[in-house]
Amino acid sequence: MGFAEFLGNERLVGALRGALRTNRVPHALLFTGARGVGKFTLARLFAQAANCERLLDDSCGECATCQRIALLAHPEELIAQGLVERGESADAATVERVPLILQSHPDVWALVPDPVRLKSPVARPMLRVGQLRAVQRAAYFQPMGRRRVFILDGAETMRWDVANVFLKILEEPPGSATLILTAPSPYALLPTIVSRCMQFHFAPLPQAAVEKILKEKTNRKPAEIKLAAQLAEGSPGLAMEMDVEKTAQARKNALRILERAARGQGFAQLFADTSALAKDRDTSFEEQISVFYGLLTDLLELTSKVKEPALRNAPLAKELESLANSVDSVWVLRAIAGFDELYAGARRNLNRQLGLDSLTASLAPKDSRASSIVL
User: Fold this and answer.
1) Smallest Cα–Cα separation from 198: which of 326, 310, 6, 46?
2) Where would a tag sit more exposed on the chain, N or C end, judged by fewer CB atoms within 10 A?
3) Which pLDDT score, from 0 to 100, does residue 373 have?
4) CA dihedral defined by 49, 55, 58, 61, rounded to 10 degrees?
5) Superfamily assignment of 3-203 in CATH?
6) What CATH number is given for 244-374 in this structure?
7) What is the pLDDT of residues 227-270, one digit of tens each?
């Protein structure tokens, strides 16, 4: 697979190819955008093109180097292998001493948030100091091929004190290596790190493009393809791995919580809903919050009376319009600010349910809040 097969964000692809062609490759790149939009895939394609034995600004996909780096296309297999080799009962010291590094070619490393264990992974995988120190040591080695490439997927999971280790590499960048960080937003990283990277933001793909990818790479029925493309919000990777029924139900559950909060009625059922959401360990809290953000974005467009709103949750258009008639933009902005605080609290191990209960109660009308306290 070469650059030509990468769908969407053509300007980013052109910029990377131009950098390779002119041999003016930045020492650090930051790829930002929604999960599943292709950040890791393009980082891998760049690594192949930077080391291809036949081409200068693309990968042939046939030489030994391209084929070895292409193994990173399925990182889950390499992750499982690495965790098995380290041992299921690895303690904290072992996790740092034997960092999880995905390497199918000597010049290309991929670092992913470490789940610690294969059978019972931790709830919040993160990039760890052992992984970053390994990069710090290896980044200055001369490449066997043309360029060393280090891909740090999920860079936002670095604790900020740990991120300072990585900052040292950026302050004295190696001349023959490129470090590629992926994150949903530059605001999830230290400003000092962001300022030292060339930024590339990945825009969501049009729904038609996502549907095309699903038709080519899955065996789903047409109706399921259309719904998955709508729910994926421009992220083909997310659409391909999506459990459509579960995702649609999660949106409905989140909207029901917002509806009950706005009405200020049925607090017992409201808190039961937030409790069920907080106890869901199959989905990260950040992903759950992102569902609310999507709904609130639609509500903001509807309450602002946008003439032709482009709803991210089109299948719930009727329910969203009904809720928009009972709230205003001020309420929506207050809700967004509340979820911002909740998201920040999640990084400090805030109690999920208490945070959700407090937020939803604060969104209820004042008179209903007073009555709920009396009850």
Assistant:
1) 46
2) C
3) 44
4) -80
5) P-loop containing nucleotide triphosphate hydrolases (3.40.50.300)
6) 1.20.272
7) 898 888 888 888 888 888 888 888 998 899 898 888 877 667 77
